[in-house]
Amino acid sequence: MGVLTELPAPSKESATPNLFVSESGQVYLSWVEYLNDATDALNYAVLEEKGWSTPQTIATGSDWFVNWADFPSFVSYKDGGQTLAAHWLQKSNLGTYDYDVRIAQSLDAGKTWQPSFIPHRDSIAAEHGFVSLLPFSKDRIFATWLDGRNTKGEGHDEGDGHGHEHHGSMTLRSALFDKAGNLYEETELDNRICDCCQTSAALTDKGVIIAYRDRSEDEIRDISVVRQVNGQWTKPAKVFADNWHIAGCPVNGPAIKANGAFVAVAWYSMPKEKAEIKIAFSEDSGATFQTPIKIDNGNPLGRIAIELLADKTALVSWLENTTENAEIRAVKVNPKGKIGNDFLVSKTDAARDSGFPVMAKSGNQIIFAWTHVDDLTHIKTAILKL
User: Fold this and answer.
1) pLDDT for 316-331, tens place per residue?
2) What domains does the chain contain, in order, with CATH numbers?
3) Which of 46, 140, 280, 348 fits 289 for a cystine, CB–CB 3.0-4.6 Å?
4) Which residues, other chains included, contact 175 with Cβ-Cβ below 8 Å and sequence gap of 6+?
């Protein structure tokens, strides 16, 4: 694939990195910096010729919900990087999972940030998170998230994953917002989904496509997509019937990318108690998907990222268990199968603290970012020249 070179990250005690690449190819790294025991900051830096720029702070708070799996994001409008948007999660009440999505915007390329707004208008102290932000046009950003307004009043029990189960149903919702924070096309897309798996969204030649973990009445939790076609949302459709029956949330969402009509979705599943990482391709904007291709080494943890490369190929990264601990691995795939051997990005920790590694493509390079677990957690980044 090329040479992987570690790039010194601009953070101190920190975690939950995220990456975004603008239309012009500008790479942004965002993360949560731990200022002290009570206060967190959402910071970002720009990739320059000699490395990451000096960090800039978007917002700080002492009432944030900071979680290993549900982390902030950062995007720019399709306006040349003049307008930026970022989200974080902020407590709304005393309950463990009572928190809102907060979105702040900069109208001057990051010099100053406007007061934050909430993209969901239910005004209910409940769980709202696992957000995907997607540049939609020069004056609109698309947002989708898991919305717990219908779960309010039901008990939350600590469990293995994100940490809760309840009788009310988590829903998938979306909206568009503009540079003034006005909301448009607020929609419920699925009225019963998995409680705490990440969402992932991409823009096809037909419109937005969202991948997420669905949840049937009999607790089958497979990956579904909803698509925007001619301005209308389709009904949820499975990417593939893994038929994974699980009573709790695995906290392992899918990752999706699109280029015109070409779409690739990668995900973690565990049918018949056998963990697997799979990828499926579509040539018709996600209307149908080909038979999935298994890409792991036999003992995966999940935590997936994906990028599309040239000639209808994809690069997928994931966490694989090892005898020592865990590794971030990646492999190039096309619709016919693997291309070459998978490779090591970095050794890592299997614990939750190591979070979800991310990657992004800009030009002829892939940028990786992950949380390194030591006495103090901190961000690491690396560049792969293709």
Assistant:
1) 999 999 999 999 999 9
2) 69-197 (no CATH), 199-355 (2.115.10.20)
3) 280
4) 119, 120, 142, 143, 183, 184, 185, 186, 187
